[in-house]
Amino acid sequence: MAPAAPPPARGPRLTRKPQDHSAALGCHLSFSLANVTRSSTVKLQVVSPARLLHSSCSLEKTLQCSCSFHGIPTPSVRWLMGGVPVGVNGPDSGLQVTSSITAPWANSTISLTGEPEIVTRLRCEGKNQHGIHASSIFLIPDKNSISSVFVKGLIQGIVYGAIASALLFLLLVLLAKPKPALLEEPETPMEYKAETSLVSVEV
Fold first, then answer.
1. What predicted TM-score, i.e. pTM, was given to this entire model?
2. 3-class secondary structure for the chain?
């Protein structure tokens, strides 16, 4: 009985990483008994969805939040304030967004001048064709800001209520004012002219 053939030798296993995308991989085979040599080179294709690797916020004179994404292809980054997209590289209602891309990295920073008047959700979103990754930050105003907004709304309500009450009062006065009675012209009595005849009597 012939001895069993040894199993084919296996080379080292390659673990692909995102940074290996587009790298050249060479394979060289040599059969010494048959004096045959084969070589081949392939380009690695590594698929990587958008992934948030870092996010932070700091508050000094302005509130600044940053997000860093990684992915292949390089993700696009956008910010949303209260569910509404914020313009890129330009002022937008006190917001300014600055983005930079160094493949396969995408970095973006948003600056907020002033404090939000109400609790608002700020969302940083990275996206490529293989997936979306996002992070949400809730901006909560301090108590003084909330109380000032309340007082402002209260004053506006009092002013608008006073105006509405004055208009309603004026309307009621106009409706309740009695209408002047129409004066009828008195009838002019007919003038009767009586003819008087003079009769002379001689004595």
1. 0.51
2. CCCCCCCCCCCCCCCCCHHHCCCEEEEEEEECCCCEEEEEEEECCCCEEEEEEEEEEEECCCEEEEEEEEEECCCEEEEEECCEECCCCCEECCEEEEEEEECCEEEEEEEECCCCCCCEEEEEEEEECCEEEEEEEEECCCHHHHHHHHHHHHHHHHHHHHHHHHHHHHHHHHHHCCCCCCCCCCCCCCCCCCCCCCCCCCC
